[in-house]
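Thread: magnesium ion complex, take 2
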Amino acid sequence: MTSVQELAAAIRRGDRAALARGITLVESRRPEDAAAGEELLQLLLPWAGQSVRIGITGAPGVGKSTFIEALGRRRCDAGQRVAVLAVDPSSAVTGGSILGDKTRMTELSRHPNAFVRPSPGGGTLGGVAARTREAMLLCEAAGHDLVLVETIGTGQSEVTVHGMVDYFLLLLSPAAGDELQGIKRGVMELCDGVLVHKADGDLAPAADRAAQQCLLAMRVLHAGEPEPPPVVVGSSLTGRGLDELWQAIERRLAGRRADGSFAATRARQAEDWLDAAVRERLLADFLADPATVQALAAARERIARGELLPSAAARQLVQRRPGTP
Ligand SMILES: Nc1nc2c(ncn2[C@@H]2O[C@H](COP(=O)(O)OP(=O)(O)O)[C@@H](O)[C@H]2O)c(=O)[nH]1
Ligand SMILES: [Mg+2]
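Output below.
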């Protein structure tokens, strides 16, 4: 049994097994791990925060995992140290997607500069691993200067991941030209850049058309901004567009560092993290009392029978003293 100090030191040395153990520790929901997990994060905090964090979203099957592997390998070959946090909600049900992600990223995970962590969906949080922020900090302390977070194409997880990265990339399929109406406007507004993916072989012409339509849409959606987010056409199979995309990402991030918005966004994200942590803690403490859980169940029944308003029930539940019926 290594101490938390030893684990922290091993992570700092770049020991990948230690990093994996550390992430397991901070992801743990077992109460007896909580103190050690917090101590580990506190020890490593001085070395965290130095990476570029990129979130990748897009519909299932658009090629996010394949793209991450392709981009990750390029960045590793260029001397960067890359960490991948892959989050796939379907894996919680079938287990198959984890394997899929793993097999597709085998080459990247073998690269000495890479760390790949396919993470099970975070259960109750609808697929976003509840501890992605913490895992990110550990990767940074281990010396990874690029963190890639794969997210899913739908739901709250997009907003959550957007709230913890410096750059949010949307992957679209070549058929997106026809589907642009169906793509959630919110994601188009949130994203910092678009990659129209799979622009190879027979799909290349459709991808070029989709990119034109997407560019027009982005100009409208980002009308107030000095420059609309770039729309790049590319393929992870042929490598087309990947260098262009990386340059566009670096340009945008450099601009943000220069005008101060990079740091401002990070500061706002830290505030949001605090808010979320406070909510989570309050709720956990609230539900830790068995009598409260009972009272909650009783209130549910009365609400269902139409005898009680949810708002009134909530007030009564929160105001009651723990341990009382
Ligand atoms: N033609 C083509 N197919 C791709 C490309 N990238 C991924 N694919 C294929 O698309 C499918 C889904 O890829 P995957 O990375 O698992 O998508 P994800 O669900 O978004 O992570 C796989 O069969 C890949 O081989 C690409 O650049 N071009
Ligand atoms: Mg995937």
